[in-house]
Amino acid sequence: MRELQQTPQGNSGDSVALRSNGLTKKYGAKLALDHFSIEVKKGSIFGFLGPNGAGKTTFIRLALSLITPTEGYVEIFGSRVSNTDSQALSRIGAIIEQPALYNYMSGANNLRAFAMMLGGNDEANIQHVLRIVGLHGRQKDRVKTYSLGMKQRLAIAIALLNNPDILMLDEPANGLDPAGVVEIRLLMQNLAAAGKTIFISSHILSEIQQLCNEIAIINQGKLIKQSTVHELTKMQVSIFIVTTDKAATALQFIQAEPWGADAYIDLQNRLITRAPGDKGSDLSAFLAKHEIYPESVQLQEQSLEQVFLQLTQSPQQGVL
Ligand SMILES: Nc1ncnc2c1ncn2[C@@H]1O[C@H](COP(=O)(O)OP(=O)(O)O)[C@@H](O)[C@H]1O
Ligand SMILES: [Mg+2]
How confident is the model at residue 203 (pLDDT cuts 50, 70, 90)? Predict the structure, then answer.
């Protein structure tokens, strides 16, 4: 997984690799994507996170001009994507859902076959992409003997054949065992380090959290949130207060606060409560006012999974 060439720079000053603006797709009456606008910065590993049926594959198909939008558009390095102008599209390599590999052919011959379809069979390039994905040593083996992780890496090699600036992968970790997930993660990190922009859709939250620096959360065709993983996690910090001092009195007061719904007294007569991270100063004032002196106050970051559940649930359920 070495020997990566630097990806050539885009047009002058283009820090945005991919942008969608008001992107909307209806399948009959079904609104699969609803005025969806995001920006993917050049060189980022961008996580596109959402449950099944959220609209992830639809977005990727639109970005590749495999389907046409009902409204809105996608830009690649500032050029609008269209199925009549392949200039913008030539800068993307993609895998959508399960790639169709020829199981009875070797890895290298699969690449040769796909390279022919792309219009050229450059053996040096085939060897180059095989090295990038770490399959150089297994290139003569039939694909049917490959692990799922190796098949996925071969599919990525196919997507890399035309040396794209942007790699779009639709659920690349799907169905992989933990070792396969790690293989893909390392490969993505290497590709990003070589200057490629990586766009990965997933419903696997922990994977996105470990790999991506920026994410967009999609649900029912709508953008729920775009931010850095760090920003999102920081924002969703909780404060835990543990106190045995005046626990019963404090419980009554805290339960009356909008954030106090989940307060309880445990078996050691301690009051345990949580408040959203941005309520720190309110909480200190509240505790001082009622002369409650907690034994500990802890900040705790939530996992992206908890954050995601909050953002996609109703507001009442999502406060804490
Ligand atoms: N060709 C199609 N015809 C009708 N509905 C579709 C089609 N493709 C996708 N959908 C619907 O659009 C929604 C989004 O689908 P999709 O983009 O595949 O979601 P995801 O990839 O996030 O699982 C789903 O409700 C799906 O059933
Ligand atoms: Mg999908």
Answer: confident
